[in-house]
Amino acid sequence: xxxxxxxxxxxxxxxxxxxxxxxxxxxxxxxxxxxxxxxxxxxxxxxxxxxxxxxxxxxxxxxxxxxxxxxxxxxxxxxxxxxxxxxxxxxxxxxxxxxxxxxxxxxxxxxxxxxxxxxxxxxxxxxxxxxxxxxxxxxxxxxxxxxxxxxxxxxxxxxxxxxxxxxxxxxxxxxxxxxxxxxxxxxxxxxxxxxxxxxxxxxxxxxxxxxxxxxxxxxxxxxxxxxxxxxxxxxxxxxxxxxxxxxxxxxxxxxxxxxxxxxxxxxxxxxxxxxxxx
Length: 278
Known about the structure:
The chain is mainly β.
């Protein structure tokens, strides 16, 4: 019997040179820390995660989101469910660069005219934006200039009234600044009044068609908008269709009664204004 018990003990004992599972784990991972026994009935503790400070989270969100920039933050009018201000009505002052008059009925010294002259005026305009990307504009504007003779008291006046309609495409729409490209068509009425020193006055009137392209900017302050525009106008005129009246044109030839403007002109118009949004 003693011999049988001794054989069983030798069979159950580990062989020399072998290691247990816990010893193998400790040898393969030298940094491993043996697990401490968890008392019965107590849950295992979870690692704590410290929340970020509110100021740090706000600064990170503002730096990561480009729409948080003041000038390019999304306009409140475009928020879902927001009541948008679709209409804008305003006034503006303008300055226009145009070719000078070349009248035949009187003599203007070309040495003092140059290739271009500057006309000044003002205008009224209104805009309607059915959607944030597209707007429609209609406006009436005036531009005037006076030619004075240095050698006498003669004065020649040029007055123009422009009316046009156009479409604007807003390529950048921020909370403060918005930019758009525009194009349109319209017409222009012109009047030239001659008041020479001789006292024989005369007047010419004519009509023109125009097309325009340009760029616009709006700077929004709640319900008020400040506008800037730069536009190129192509003006088409038939000089022979001008109407002449007055003592200066009595008994003159037909070519002298034609409007003293080119058949095609290019105007460069810049304007600045203020408008009310509703």
